[in-house]
Amino acid sequence: MFDSVLAVEVSIAILAAGSLISLAASSRPRLCAYVSFALVAASSIAIWLAVIGAFTGGSRDRTLFSLPQLGTSFTFRVDSLSAIFLALVGFVVPLSALYSVRYMHHYAHDNVAKFYPILLLCMAGMIGVLVAADLMCFLVFWESMTLASYFLVAYERESAASQRAGLKYFIITHGATLCMVAASLALWRTSNSFHFDAVRETLSAMLTSHPLEAHLITFLFFLGFATKAGILPMGDWLPDAHPVAPSGMSAMLSGVLVKLGIYGLVRLFCSFLVPSPSLGIWGIVVALAGTGSLFAGNLTALRQNDTKRLMAFSTIGQIGYICLGLGSGLYCLATSPLVASICLTGATLHVINHACFKSCLFLGAGSVVYRRGTRNMDQLGGLARFMPYTTGATAIASLSIAGVPPLNGFTSKWLIIAGCIFTGLRFPLFLLLGLIALFISIVTLAAYLKVLGAVFVGSTEESAAVQEVPLSMVVPQAVLAAMCVILGIFPQPVLGLVSRAIEGLTGVSASAVRAGTMWGSISLIDGSAAAFWWPLGIFLGLAILALLSYGIQRAACAKARVVPVWYCGEEHGPAGVRYPANSFFVPFKQAFRGVYPALRLPPPRFPVLIRRALDLDRWIYTPVARTVEKTAGGISRTHVGAPQIYLLWIVIGAVAVVAITLALAH
Q1: Of 473, 252, 450, nearest to 371 (Cα)?
Q2: What backbone phi and psi angles, to 5 degrees, belong to 656?
Q3: Cα–Cα distance between 353 and 67 in angstroms, integer?
């Protein structure tokens, strides 16, 4: 049995010291990259030891130091919920760091001192958020994570889009942090303690004695966590931040960092609040917010022609699925524990699955940028022949995020939608929300078929010089794609760990999701057997059908005839006849145009006097520049090119110096 808290402390210490080592090595970019990856890998090993210890030995607190005057302490705790999210950090971040070793060559004019040391600090902040057992400690790590991620988003100093997205991220996320600080101080004023156990007791008591204040505090926490998670409208920072960040950071941002907002929501509603009728109301709020996000996010993703921007809007949509499952579970937590366990298990499993396929998609998009230098799908095409590994990994991740069986996205979406149906039998609104989620899965499939069709299929004249990305960029994509397949065919072990986490957090038995052995099936029980899924059987069936169709094709001995396409007697290049990305699903996109909320404010108008007072160019810089220009023009007229004139000036200067010296002597 491993000491989970000690392993976490070692992990954070490695990252903190490693950031200084990485900074010292930044003058040699390649060395800095490999050293940083080694430090991240070492930290991840410690994280996995903490995860194993949490699931084998339970959780316990350890206080590093305390400030009793403030009622706070730096206390760490690794329970089963923390362990699941720590596993995501320990899995995705090392792959992103390995990918970045070669990818960061793409930024030849930027110093890696702005990337690798900050990446290590960001990882340390995420770990600290997940193991903090005190609100003050939690907020310190939360702010360090937010600041570090801001510098990674705004990495390109000379890019106006990068700086603008970074500023937007900074303002929105710090506004959310202020909400959380206000809520924490309101609780501290009553309990005189920031410890999680005191927060739970205080908030539960306030729901009875001061319900309005308790719900206001809950709302402030909800705003803070929902903003980080990317739930609309608070998550409007996300579509701007993802495209401009380095692709390794984009994978970490979508795969792990936004999940910490989900971690906060689960901790808030399943740990700080006790099951009650008011929790059911909050469940409806969370479910509606999630449904709005998955609807607007995925439909807006379909309209994008920028690969990374499409994936950013898709992240909003997939977070919506998680919140829909979480909200459904909260609604049933007090009245129907079996249904609640189905919903919460599906939401938590989708957190894990999304980390795999969305990280893989962002790394695939980054590989295309690395080789072609553009994210515009209208300028891409035909890359499948030249980048087969990137194409294969992106195809697997695209089918996974759309929920195509037997890949991992199907299992979690099946649990979420089934949970909505079971909840809808008690409150019909959730039936409608489940149908919307089912419809949006088709939209998600359409969006990523667009990516595959526009980027990898077809041909362009520019694709001939393209080759596959380096091995250090291929391996992370291959590992993530493999996990999409493995977790789709064998979800039972992960479901068992997720069920333990849900049961440990809420006290509700997760027996409604019955997952047998790795080779067995998964059943949902709502009083009686209600749903059934056998992923391995489906996979074997599809494999047999594929082999059968291939055998029939080979047995027919049909010869393929390759001829040029006839363009009505005219000659056209591949770029002139290819189907561009902006032509995909045009009628559908027009039908849902404007679904993403947009707030356009007029530019502020300042009074004339203030504008003139702040116009330093007009009354300082311009007059000084003109004076210097006139003086320089007068002096330039003395340079006539005659040596005699220059000698005369030397004599005049010498006489002037002697005269000044004599005058000063008297």
Answers
A1: 473
A2: -65, -40
A3: 40
Domain boundaries, given as residue ranges, for the chain: 157-539, 541-591, 608-665
Cβ atoms < 10 Å from Cβ of 466 = 17
CA–CA distance, 601 with 374 (Å, rounded to integer): 30
654 CB-near residues (< 8 Å, 6+ apart) = none
Q: Is there a cis peptide before residue 239, judged by omega within 30 degrees of 0? A: no
Positive/negative CA dihedral, 320, 452, 152, 18: positive
Structure tokens of 59? 């959780």
Residue the block writes with tokens 């001995």: 557
Which residues lie closer than 8 Å to 41 by C-beta, 6 or more apart? 94, 97
Closest CA to 60 of 1, 141, 138: 1
Q: In the structure encoding, which two tokens stand for residue 595, read together?
A: 């679904």
Q: How would residue 512 be classed by pLDDT, with cut points 50, 70 and 90?
A: low
Roughly what angle, to the nearest 10 degrees, separates helices 211-229 and 259-267? 160
375: which 2 tokens? 């994210």
Among 229, 30, 31, which Cα is nearest to 142's?
A: 229
Cα separation, 313 vs 310, whole angstroms: 5
CA gyration radius, the chain: 30
Give the integer Cα–Cα distance in Å for 586 and 533: 36
Q: What is the mean pLDDT of residues 500-520?
A: 72
Indicate if the pLDDT at residue 327 is higher than 80: yes
**Distances from the Cα of 384 to the Cαs of 368, 453, 456, 564, in angstroms?**
11, 10, 5, 20
Burial of 381 (0-12, 13-18, 19+ CB in 10 A): buried
Which pairs with CB-CB distance under 8 Å and at least 24 residues apart come from 29-38? 29/104, 29/105, 29/112, 30/101, 32/112, 32/113, 32/116, 33/100, 33/101, 33/104, 33/112, 33/116, 34/101, 36/97, 36/116, 36/117, 36/119, 36/120, 37/94, 37/97, 37/98, 37/100, 37/101
Q: How far is CA 161 from each of CA 82, 150, 239, 308, rounded to the nearest angstrom?
A: 35, 14, 12, 14
Q: Are 148 and 114 in contact (CB under 8 A)?
A: no
State the DSSP code for 268: I
User: Is 90 exceeded by the pLDDT of residue 385?
Assistant: no
- Region label for 568, one of left (φ > 0), alpha (ψ between -120 and 50) or beta (otherwise): left
Mean pLDDT on 321-343: 90
pLDDT confidence of 522, banded at 50, 70, 90?
low
More confident: 112 or 97: 97
8 A C-beta contact, residue 334 and residue 277: yes
Tell me the two tokens of residue 638: 């003395």
Cis amide leading into 535 (omega within 30): no
Amino acid type, 189: R
Tokens of 624: 């000084």
Comparison of pLDDT for 42 and 584, the residue scoring more: 42
pTM: 0.86
Residues 437 and 409 sit within 8 Å (Cβ to Cβ):
no
| Residue 113 confidence (pLDDT) above 70 | yes
Of all helices (H) and strands (E), which one includes residue 515? strand 513-515
- Under 8 Å between Cβ of 412 and 350: yes
Reply yes or no on whether the pLDDT at 602 is more than 80.
Answer: no
Between the CA of residue 193 and those of 65, 189, 197, what are the distances in Å? 15, 8, 9
Integer angstrom CA distances of residue 474 from 30, 389, 479: 18, 7, 9
